[in-house]
Predict the structure.
Amino acid sequence: ERVKEAADIVEIVSAYTDLQQRGQDYWGNCPFHDERTPSFKVNPRDKLYYCFGCEASGDVFRFVEEKEGLDFPQAVESLAERYGVELERESEDPRAEEKRRRRARLWELLERTAKFYERYLWESPKADRARAYLAQRGLGEEVLRRFGVGMAPSPWDQVLTGSQRAGFKVEELLAAGLTQKGRQGGHYDRFRNRITFPIRDQRGRVLGFGARALSRDEQP
Ligand code: ZN
């Protein structure tokens, strides 16, 4: 109830369709079926939606579940985080708790790595070429910083050793997709000598990276 109270359903739905206020309700083209005239109604007081065309309906949680592919607890968590509501967990299945903790660790690892790549791009003398390349592609510092563009250094193990020093295990680095197993055993960084682009979810968490090779003989 507290999460529901805090959530702004008009703002949430507006990410998917343009809404116009009519009386106390808002109307727009349905985000669940294809149409040209609005039959999708949002009631901001009760935080409900209904489509007179395809009969999609539900509350703010249901909407987030449907559009963001989440289950109910995840939808509650997502909205709680977005609207600043603290959740208390009374009892949690230990396995679910373990899973949640593990995911949180991987997000932390990815976030940390994104910051490292970003710092490397702006501060390392070895990133001169990457900066020149980006400038030549017409990308200014402001937009690069806004999107968290960075650079992965050339050595084989910079992220690996840096993350290990910060307390992360090799197994976590593998799970996050940041390192891979070498053919002769051992592990090495997946991204090397590449411009990196963090891929974030709707909650702003880094889930992974896209990366552009800088040497001609390397694959995208
Ligand atoms: Zn519809």
User: Anything to note?
Assistant: Residues 30, 32-33, 40, 51, 53-54, 56 surround zinc ion (CB under 6 Å). The chain has a mean pLDDT of 94. The first helix runs from residue 2 to 6.
